[in-house]
Amino acid sequence: AEGASTHAMILAGWQGGVLASVLGSFSGTLGGQLRICSLAHTEPKRARNLQLVGWAFWLFGQALGQVAILLAPATVAACVTFSASLLSNALLAPLVLNERLTRLHGLGIMLLAVGGAVVTLASCHGNQEYSWHQLKSFISRSEFLSVAACLFGCALVLSAHAIRRNCLDLYSFACLFALCGSCDLLVTKFALQSLRLMVLGRDGQPLHPSWAVPASVALMLLLHLATFCCQVVAAHYRKALQSLPIFLGSGAMMQVLLCGIFFDEFGEFTHLQTLVFLSGLGLILAGLVATSMAPHVEAEKSALPQFPQHTGRQESLDTPADELLPGDLPVG
């Protein structure tokens, strides 16, 4: 009976995390689209108000995301956030940004959402209460160190390529954004677990070294700031129905990979669970390909003013048309 009660508490805990993740995803997506909308307004006051409201919704979504990270397994939190954000983006983009869904957009979003749901169902749903000994052992696992080294090596190559070209294309930025977001998720869960151990200290003594909480919280705040900066840049890619699914899909895959390996959430997989999990990742990849190929189509009567091709400081940043693609951002 006690075991059944514990299992029910664990299940209720991560289900609460899923609910927080869904609500946070909707709020964050709405905030992001309002910020994109503000970039198209020439009236400074209206643009500023949209920016403020957009950031308020985004920050509220991030707060709910912290609750989800604490309660649910990292892979579940990542995949639910991904699927809920995709659905919210598809529903809100025609209303907020007046973008039109095409059949290829619909196919891509369907594949991404189904893939995210499959990965979520196949993910680890175990107890999320780690001891300090477990957390410390996760850091030195050879599997995690190898994957982390490969990911950071790819990030350095992409950064060097962007500096050499003097622009950052959509897909390179998506990879860098995904790496930043996955590190943020990992460190946030680690920091929240350290805080939990501090609160649960026995006889007034914490269950971890005194430096663990300050160090992990400081790194978490630093990565939150980096993610915030990526969010600012992401809005300038504009095309929500194309760019956001690519950001979300690459981010979800990297979060699942990095966090799943770090917290050893793949260690309990059965052969069938592994097969289902990999098929879900395959659907996500197919959805990313379909979304990246979908054309950007605006409604016949746009509710937003057209963004000028060259205004003010933008002229000094533009590179020749044969060097800078439509989805690229100038660097430096």
TrEMBL record:
Topology class, membrane: Multi-pass membrane protein
Matching Pfam families: Mg_trans_NIPA
Any GO molecular function: magnesium ion transmembrane transporter activity
GO cellular component: membrane
Region listing for Disordered, in residue ranges: 310-332
Organism domain of life: Eukaryota
Record field: transmembrane: 12-31, 52-69, 75-97, 104-124, 144-163, 170-191, 211-234, 246-263, 275-294
Keywords: Membrane, Transmembrane, Transmembrane helix
Residue ranges of coiled coil: none
Keyword presence, Membrane: yes
Record's subcellular location: Membrane
PANTHER family: PTHR12570
Protein name: Magnesium transporter
Upper classification of the organism: Eukaryota, Sar, Alveolata, Dinophyceae, Suessiales
